[in-house]
Amino acid sequence: MVKAELPEIDLSIEAGDWPEHDELERLIRAAIIAAIEVADLRYAKDAELSVLLTDDQAVQELNRQWRNIDKPTNVLSFPGEDIEVGQTAGMLLGDIAMGQQTLASEALNEGKRFEDHFSHLVIHGFLHLFGYDHQDDEEAEIMEQFEREALAKLNIANPY
How far apart are CA 93 and CA 41, in angstroms? Predict the structure, then answer.
């Protein structure tokens, strides 16, 4: 059971061949609920989250601008504030941006349903907003375990 009200989700679909808005919103909400439950994530009442669904060109530009990496990627997370794992986030949780072509290509190449891979990346991106990372093996194992547990709640197989 969710301990807090879900954050307000501002979903923007700017480019790319995405599923219908209502389906995407349903998938995002379910993924976020699962992540909140397994990682015991906490945030301010009336918190907000922005999700941008776009194409690889736009994600590549964001990746170049903010990470100095000049290539597209599947998901980028921009925390609203710097918080440590376990801390309560404030009102602005941050932004998650996803590139449709990279996500679709990965799903196809890995034999996964698009919706399952999408849900995994929403969980992954959302955990980043709460200080979780995968810069070393120990951090990666903690984050991946939460991802596996959240995906299991959604009846999605272990992606690792």
Answer: 11
Count of beta carbons in the 10 Å neighbourhood of residue 31: 25
Is a pLDDT exceeding 80 seen at residue 2?
no
Domains with residue ranges and CATH for the chain: 8-153 (3.40.390.30)
Contacting residues for 49 by C-beta, under 8 A, at least 6 apart: 7, 8, 9, 10, 32, 93, 94, 95, 96, 126, 129
**Residue 4: predicted pLDDT:** 54
Q: What is the pTM of this model?
A: 0.93
Centroid of chain to Cα 143: 12
* Alpha-carbon span 145 to 156, nearest angstrom: 14
